[in-house]
Amino acid sequence: MNRIKTGISGMDRLIGGGFPSETIILLSGGPGTGKTLFGLKFLLEGAAKGEKCCYVSLNEKKDELLRACNMISSLGTVKKYIDKNFVIEHVQLDEHITMKKFVNIISSYPNIDRLVIDNVNKLLMFSDSGKNYRSHFSELVNYLKKMGCSLLVCETDGEHIDTGHSEAFECDGVVNLSFLELEEKPMRTLDIHKMRYTPFDPKMPHEFVINSMDVRLGTTKVI
Ligand SMILES: Nc1ncnc2c1ncn2[C@@H]1O[C@H](COP(=O)(O)OP(=O)(O)OP(=O)(O)O)[C@@H](O)[C@H]1O
Ligand SMILES: [Mg+2]
Fold first, then answer.
1. 3.40.50.300, 2.30.42.10, 3.30.300.20, 3.30.1380.10: CATH of 3-217
2. Gap from CA of 68 to ligand 1 centroid (Å)
3. What residues does each domain of the chain span?
4. pTM of the predicted model as reported, rounded to 2 decimal places
5. What is the pLDDT of residues 142-163, one digit of tens each?
6. 3-state secondary structure of 53
7. C-alpha to C-alpha distance for 215 and 57, rounded to whole angstroms
8. Which of 26, 28, 35 to probe ligand 1 with, by most ligand atoms within 8 A of CB?
9. Residues 41, 215: contact at Cβ < 8 Å?
10. d(CA 38, CA 44)
11. In the Cβ-directed half-sphere of 116, how many Cα atoms lie within 13 Å?
12. Could you give the angle at the alpha carbon of 42 between the alpha carbons of 199 and 98, nearest 5°?
């Protein structure tokens, strides 16, 4: 099976080399767990190989995302690809651009190898109802299946893996980021809840490290 490298080599090793191609992965977690940086690293991995990558941001503006990249050495090379094969699009949802309109915008995109949408919570916020959100989310997922690989960022309360609107069921994979409250020092963790077409150890927390050098899996054993 064709595997899409995630940009985090430790993560690739957990899932047989990377995400399966033509899949939609839900990247969920509480505030500040590293979702946006993971998304940027995932796209940078593709951009460096010449793939067409697009970051659709419903929250932070392009300069804010570039500022975040500048804080981390391994993400600093993003600027080589920006406005070439790595595009950051800031879409501001409001009563005119609702979830329904947003799905139309995405379906008008040309073929993209890697796409990140950050985050689905904004789509939920600008939906008429939970029922409409679920039906448009399903439409979005079906559309994205035609693309290389998409990452949908989902902010959660830290206890759940999605917003409670079936996003985890709809997606092919679910990667969850969280904080483990250890006595000495809380630790960022990553665990995989679901990955279709892939053997893996479910729900095993791995140390997830963010520092000035890189965003990566750590070596500390988490029991
Ligand atoms: N160079 C760095 N060294 C250490 N920590 C850093 C560095 N750069 C960023 N961080 C930390 O990484 C955290 C997570 O960043 P990120 O924006 O990816 O999280 P997020 O899950 O997307 O958060 P949000 O809930 O705001 O969307 C930041 O809050 C920041 O504290
Ligand atoms: Mg974020």
1. 3.40.50.300
2. 8
3. 3-217
4. 0.97
5. 999 988 999 999 999 989 999 9
6. strand
7. 20
8. 35
9. yes
10. 10
11. 31
12. 105
Residue 132, token pair as written in the block: 């409409």
For residue 10, pLDDT over 90 is answered with yes
Q: Scanning the structure block, which residue is given the tokens 């879409």?
A: 91
Q: What is the pLDDT of residue 34?
A: 98
What's the residue count for the chain?
223
Give the C-alpha separation, 13 to 190, whole Å: 13
Q: Which residues contact 223 (CB under 8 A, 6 or more apart)?
A: none
Report the separation in Å between the CA atom of 1 and the middle of ligand 2, taken as the mean of its atom positions.
31
Helix (H) or strand (E) run with residue 115 in it: strand 114-118
CA of 211 to the centre of ligand 1 (A): 9
DSSP string, 118-176: E-HHHHHHTSS-HHHHHHHHHHHHHHHTTSSEEEEEEE--SSSSS-SSSHHHHSSEEEE
